[in-house]
Amino acid sequence: xxxxxxxxxxxxxxxxxxxxxxxxxxxxxxxxxxxxxxxxxxxxxxxxxxxxxxxxxxxxxxxxxxxxxxxxxxx
Length: 75
Description:
Structural class: alpha+beta
Strand order of the largest sheet: 1-2-4-3
CATH topology: Translation Initiation Factor IF3
Largest sheet: 4 strands, mixed
Helix content: 25-40%
Number of strands: 4
CATH architecture: 2-Layer Sandwich
Low-confidence stretches: none
CATH class: Alpha Beta
Number of helices: 2
């Protein structure tokens, strides 16, 4: 099963986290979501995800963009 990809490179805070949160709601418990985003949203999105109990499994730089691998918290 492939991990879904959510591209929020065209969005700005606070919509970046709102869209990530909506993306996580569409996957099962303990599922994974890949998120492509711009550097200016990186810190806030990571902080918000950790506050809600999710885990950042990885961060990769893709040119000017970043790819986060997010593990949804167990419910």
